[in-house]
Write a structure and sequence with these properties.
Elements (H helix, E strand, L loop, with lengths): L23 E6 L3 H17 L7 E6 L5 H11 L4 E9 L5 H19 L4 E8 L2 H6 L1 E3 L2 E2 H20 L1
Parallel strand pairs: 1-2, 1-3, 3-4
Antiparallel strand pairs: 5-6
């Protein structure tokens, strides 16, 4: 469903499992940090609201959104996280660079999900304007970071339910 019809921060609180025993990695792009920092804040606050312990939330930065795949892969390989949230923001410019960065990051995250055992949550905002990004990073459309945190909790719960 298009974000225009759904606030990214709205969800049924009671449908979210308790995250007290879950460990999260968050890889966040430094590029457009005015946006990605707000996404990070939303994700961390939402994880804690659902019981995640501060010591079980590992945050690492990468230079840009294209590097999110590498960062997520390294976090999976060298930490013991149950899920990784990848947060980035790419705003369309005058060149095709936007298309290449978005495509590369999207395909990379999809590949990690298809081939791995640790869910990687897609928190890449791709917009035409900075205003659209701001609307999705705590603005009038909510915060994509909140949505990603809920998704991470639910995907860990999903994976654990199959391992029993």
């Amino acid at each position: 469903m298009a974000t225009a019809y759904h606030n990214l921060s709205e969800y049924d609180f009671n449908s979210v499992p308790n995250a007290a025993n879950m460990k999260f990695g968050i890889v966040v792009s430094e590029w457009n940090y005015n946006i990605t920092g707000a996404l990070l804040q939303g994700a961390v606050e939402t994880l804690k609201k659902h019981g995640a312990k501060e010591e079980n939330i590992i945050v690492k930065t990468v230079p840009g959104s294209f590097e999110l795949t590498f960062g997520a892969n390294q976090m999976i390989e060298y930490t013991e996280v149950d899920a990784v949230i990848a947060l980035g923001c790419v705003v369309r410019g005058d060149t095709p660079h936007f298309d290449y960065v978005c495509m590369g990051a999207t395909q990379g995250i999809a590949q990690l999900n298809a081939n791995g055992d640790v869910p990687v949550i897609y928190g890449l905002i791709t917009t035409n304007t900075m205003e659209q990004a701001e609307d999705r990073a705590g603005g009038k459309l909510g915060n994509k970071g909140d949505e990603c945190a809920i998704t991470a909790i639910k995907m860990i719960d999903f994976a654990w339910s199959l391992q029993k």
